[in-house]
Amino acid sequence: MRRLILFNKPHGVLSQFTDRRTETERATLSDFIAVPGVYPAGRLDRDSEGLLLLTDDGHLQARIAEPKFKMPKTYLVQVEGDVAEDALAQLRSGVRLKDGVTLPAEAERIDAPDIWPRDPPVRFRKSVSDGWLKLTIREGRNRQVRRMTAAVGNPTLRLVRWQIGEWTLDGIPPGEWREISVR
Q1: Phi, psi of 63 (to 5 degrees)
Q2: What does each C-alpha distance from 126 to 42, 48, 95, 131, 158 come to in angstroms?
């Protein structure tokens, strides 16, 4: 049977089992998951949080992580400022980044989601408002969501990956994981 682990990666944790840097101790997957033979299917930046999938099946890992399969990934994104309609339109049609134009995203304003508080908390500034987006992309460029929101004038403050394909974080607290069976 193929193993698939849904892990709610906390902020500050590396998406790997070891840390090559030795001068400072940083949290890794091995601090949370003691399952032999599983590897991350894709990655999630250290300053991002949310769903990370791990599997022991190379074909499944490629299907999830390879951009050519265009598996949808949905993020809950807290951004700086109020998101204007033209910013949403840009996200929905593709955003020009230094490495080219992104594929169109599904983008909508949402109310602040009922999720766990971040540790450490997002820096609050009285003079700058913030808002939330639900953003679904089908690519996996480096720091893509952060670069997209910045390009439309709303830098990312907090980034939570909520869903990859059919798999979601629903019911999995930060630092916890659940194993599911895969056909």
Answers
A1: -60, -35
A2: 36, 23, 29, 13, 17
Quickly tell me which residue has 């906390």 as its tokens. 10
pTM score of the predicted model: 0.93
pLDDT digits (tens, 9 = 90+) for 50-81: 999 999 999 999 888 887 788 999 999 999 99
Contact (Cβ atoms closer than 8 angstroms) between residue 137 and residue 72:
yes
Q: Which domains does the chain have, with CATH numbers?
A: 1-68+168-183 (3.30.70.580), 72-164 (3.30.70.1560)
- Classify 98 as helix, strand or coil: coil
Q: Determine whether 170 is an active site residue.
A: no
Which listed residue (31, 45, 111, 170) is catalytic? Answer: 45
Which residue, 58, 52, 61, 10, is CA-closest to 31?
10
Q: Which residues partner with 83 through β-bridges? A: none
